[in-house]
Amino acid sequence: MTITHIERRFAHTIFDTIFPAGAHPDLPDGIVDVGLDWYLDDLPKHFPPMSFLVFRLALVFVALTPLFTVGRPRTIHGLDPEARLVHIGRLHHARWYLVRQMVVMIKALGSIHYFSQHAVRRRVLHGTPGATVVPLRKRVAPVDVGESTERTEDPSHTVAHAGAA
User: Fold this and answer.
1) Domain count along the chain
2) Are residues 142 and 63 part of one domain?
């Protein structure tokens, strides 16, 4: 079982909407830029046939339902990028569980591929050279003190109380 040409086009459009190029300064490459075709070709080799069929159905469903979410009788290809985002967002927040889960499945598979790429992972973990990291809150690390647990603000500082009162 392989992905068809039209499903591949749908996948490119959907994944490019979810993981676009230049969405964040640290991530200039989108999912299409890091190589989506080989991933789509490789999926059936590692996926159970029924799961792969559900993935294909999810792609077709998301691609063909803009009429119901944005009120336009066209496929996802006929929408501008903003309308595509609105469409996928509305499906993601749909009333029906099955519809929401189709979008979650697509996002999950896209995330697995996108963030497994070395260049993307390196930028996510290390950021742009020269960028500063701003801590959001003070780290508090637990320190084991016998049977109770004390907390200290310095994670490198350990307190050893062996039976001290």
Assistant:
1) 2
2) no
Closest to 55 in 3D by CA, of 112, 115, 105: 105
Query: pTM for the full model?
Result: 0.73
Domain that holds residue 164: 135-165
Place of tokens 């999810």: 58
Do 35 and 104 lie in one domain? The reply is yes
**Same structural domain for residues 122 and 139?**
no
Structure tokens given for 100 = 């929401």
Token representation of residue 118: 């070395």
Report the C-alpha gap between 144 and 160 in whole angstroms: 8
Q: Let me know whether 152 and 108 are in one domain.
A: no
Residue 156 has pLDDT above 70, yes or no: no
Q: Could you report the per-residue pLDDT of 101-151, keeping only the tens digit for each?
A: 999 999 999 999 998 888 888 887 776 666 555 555 555 555 555 554 444
Domain co-membership, 77 together with 47: yes
Q: How far apart are CA 45 and CA 145, in angstroms?
A: 51
How far, in Å, CA of 23 to CA of 18, rounded? 10
SS3 90: helix
CA angle 58, 44, 59 (to 5 degrees): 15
